[in-house]
Amino acid sequence: MSSDRKPLISGNWKMHLNHLEAITTVQQLSYLLSEDDYEAVEVTVHPPFTALRSVQTVLQADRIPIVLGAQNCHWESEGAYTGEVSPAMLAKLDVRYVIVGHSERRQLFGESDEIVARKLRAVLGAAMTPILCVGETLEEREEGRALDKVAGQVRAALDGLGADTVGGLVVAYEPIWAIGTGRTASAADAQEMCAHIRSLVADGWGPAAASSLRIQYGGSVKPVNAPELMAQDDIDGALVGGASLVADDFARIVNHRLYGA
Ligand code: PGA
To answer: Which atom, in ligand 1's list, is nearest to the CA of 179?
Structure first.
């Protein structure tokens, strides 16, 4: 990672941990992380909606510098959308980052590039930061179409945004075949894709936007592979699923710098 971009390590809890389990997990995490960790890395957790309020309360009451994130939202700020949660509601809970376009949302819930673009704008409109997820399937990688697929997803989501806005975003590169499978992209392949994303942002939005944009890698990140992934020039953090549910594992990923590449 580059020294001028603060790494962002995010725990995507998906549909795991009820509000009581979420409280316990965030408290355990806070015991394991130090001031030095928070200085070196920005840490976010993304609980299910039902646990956001509880986690927010613990973070505030105990002054824990973990940042609250959400996993999804609707693009409207209110209205007749049964079952949905708006960006404004999340912002009111001190949520600062919202994952948009996770491959599970795209594949299982039919979210198109157009929906992802709308959600991304809605998150920005509520003064939060989107974590835009992009990534290719195994078939696309084997057919040599991974770079084009990801470039298309990035452009579809960011088209029409200004350079300053794009420079403040987070993109998470998550090869779909690596999510929850125990298969990680090699550090070299992950670096290649993250560099590709940064260079297409440089082409479209200029060098300043490209150099401040933070790019996470996601897909079976574990304590054992985090140091090598995080040591890559264009990887500025990780979006962690399974390993973020276990406080000890997530803490070891956050303080990966102590373990060396
Ligand atoms: P995983 O999930 O770490 O369990 O592979 C990553 C993600 O889906 O964000």
So the answer is: 5
